[in-house]
Design brief:
single chain; alpha/beta; 4-stranded mixed sheet; 17% helix; 28% strand; globular
Length: 109
């Protein structure tokens, strides 16, 4: 699996947005029980050619900055990410994307 953004050091744990909220422990971290649907986005890599990309963030703060406080998430050890995404349809990982209109735009708009 490819990393779309290789310009930064990869942390030991990555935070991925999920499609549905998960039960959380006292520390706020999601409690995993079974499978989780992570968010994939289509990304054009060449004219007329798309890849499904998994979004990944180096910290919860960066996820919140890009997607807002209400975005559900899960933390996955980096060395387990590829096997965790097996069967998801993800063809690449986009690290710390700054999405157009992020959380601040949705608060103000």
């Amino acid at each position: 699996m490819d990393s779309v953004n290789r310009s930064q050091e990869v942390p030991d744990v990555l935070v991925l947005p999920t499609m549905a909220d998960l039960p959380r422990g006292e520390d706020g971290a999601p409690i995993l029980d079974g499978t989780v649907d992570v968010m994939l986005i289509p990304m054009e890599v060449e004219p007329g050619q798309e890849r499904h990309v998994a979004l990944a963030f180096s910290t919860v703060v960066r996820l919140v900055e890009a997607l807002g406080e209400e975005q559900p998430w899960v933390a996955i050890p980096t060395d387990q990410l590829e096997s965790a995404l097996t069967g998801s349809g993800a063809q690449a990982i986009l690290m710390d994307p700054q999405l157009a209109g992020g959380a601040e735009a949705s608060k103000n708009g």
